Amino acid sequence: MLHLPPQYRPIGADVNAPPDFADYKTTSLRSPRQPLKLIPQRLGEVTGPVFGEDRVQPGDADLTTANGGEAQGQRIVVHGRVLDSNGKPVPNTLLEVWQANAGGRYRHIGDNWPAPLDPHFDGIGRCVTDADGHYTFTTVKPGAYPWRNHDNAWRPSHIHFSLFGQAFTQRLVTQMYFPDDPLFFQDPIYNAVPAAARHRMVSVFDYDATVADWALGFRFDIVLRGRDATPFEDDEDHDD
Questions:
Q1: Catalytic residue numbers, as ranges
Q2: 3-state DSSP assignment of residue 95
Q3: For 173-203, what is the HEC assignment?
Q4: pLDDT of residue 235
Q5: Which of 145, 161, 155 is CA-nearest to residue 112?
Q6: Most buried of the four, 120, 179, 222, 235, by CB within 10 Å?
Q7: Which of 162, 158, 172 is nearest to 223 (CA)?
């Protein structure tokens, strides 16, 4: 019997931002000058392991403690499910997150705006989805911060997500925003995504996920490929 490799539905053209978006100035320098060519899925792209599960250690999903102390800021629990293009859960897949601290500053050599660094917040975490595609992180809500894209430019609060899926064709790097952020109107990264798909990057407040007297809860489901796919960002973009 002939066994065909798995096929993954393509992402709809109305989901992702164009590679060159005039309001997001640095895209003019790094966007491709020629039309992209679709490469057919072959065995190498749709099979095989993509990371070592033994690299995820207990406590990696809790960003609220580091270096012997507790991070400053509003504690939050971020959870959700990772689904494939057919709406089925993606189990045992790696999620990695990185974010600014509660003051809006990254622990990164290139971030030098005068917001305080938190000695007990490194801003990175990772976990693996369970058998039903569920994941959970505990962190603090990141602050907004200025950047130099345009006059008086501020990035809305957001958390970066990196997912490996079950194959290289499901690789996704995206951003999770918070509901009703007042800075959406002037953020070109958010507004570059077609309007009908922007809500897929925005988490939902989840009262049932709150922890009494300790943390608020937010739900963020992620879809890898297909017409309901979560929009992606450029994984080489380190300045936002």
A1: 106, 145, 155, 158, 160
A2: strand
A3: EEEEECCCCCCHHHCHHHHHCCHHHHHHHEC
A4: 45
A5: 145
A6: 222
A7: 172
Spatial neighbors of 170 by CB under 8 A, at least 6 apart, are: 8, 84, 90, 163, 164, 224, 225
Q: Which tokens belong to 42?
A: 């072959």
Distances (CA, A) of 97 to 144, 189, 236: 17, 18, 15
Tens-digit pLDDT profile for residues 6-40:
566 666 666 777 777 788 878 877 778 787 776 67
Token readout for 238 is 């380190």
For 200, phi and psi rounded to 5 degrees?
-70, -15
User: C-alpha 63: how far from its chain's center?
Assistant: 15
Tell me the CB-side half-sphere exposure of residue 227, using CA atoms within 13 A.
1
List the one residue out of 17, 18, 124, 143 whose CA is nearest residue 63.
124
Which two tokens mark 199?
């809500």
Please report, rounded to a whole number, the percentage of residues in the chain having pLDDT higher than 90: 61
pLDDT tens-digit profile of 71-102? 999 999 999 999 988 889 999 999 999 999 99
